[in-house]
Specification:
This protein is mainly alpha-helical. The protein has helices at residues 31-39, 44-50, 56-68, 70-93, 116-120, 124-144, 146-153, and strands spanning 11-12, 23-24.
Length: 159
């Protein structure tokens, strides 16, 4: 015997989670996130695969909510993008003085791109390669960094 689900219970709002944006009930996944992936041409099945704890029913509920409230969700997406652009502009205006480091990163990093959007437009596999190289360099740095090793060992604490 199958269980009947009241679809009205699949989407909720909680002022303490994502500022009250509509979310898939029982999760922190916003309808906005599902709508963004949908607008990037991901199918409901692909979205459910990306967020393994969601069921296909939950993804379709979010998409139904999006289509029924498109103006609200699209405005939310636009506001989030505008805030990201504002923060990015503030960061690019700051004159951050780089401290000398023990290592010189000779791998392509996300910092080599003028914006996070440009980085995010790279093919997924290329982004994975860049981030994997960064992780390797960081791991090597921390494995060779004597101060870090002492900190991990607790040798810096003076009793």
């Amino acid at each position: 015997m199958s269980t009947i689900t009241d679809i009205g219970t699949l989407i909720s709002r909680d002022p303490d989670i994502h500022g009250g944006c509509p979310i898939i009930a029982g999760t922190g996944v916003t309808v906005r996130r599902i709508a963004i992936w949908y607008k990037q041409s991901l199918s409901a099945e692909e979205i459910a695969d990306r967020i393994g704890h969601l069921t296909l029913t939950q993804v379709y509920a979010a998409l139904t909510y999006y289509h029924a409230n498109r103006d609200e969700i699209d405005a939310d997406i636009a506001a989030e993008a505008a805030e990201g652009d504002r923060i990015e502009a503030l960061n690019s205006q700051r004159k951050i003085q780089q401290q000398p480091t023990d290592i010189d990163l000779e791998v392509t990093t996300m910092a080599n791109y003028p914006s996070r959007r440009e980085f995010m437009q790279l093919p997924l596999e290329e982004r994975r390669i860049i981030l994997a190289k960064q992780a390797e360099v960081m791991l090597q740095h921390y494995q060779e960094d004597r101060e870090w090793q002492e900190l991990e060992a607790g040798d810096l604490i003076d009793y």
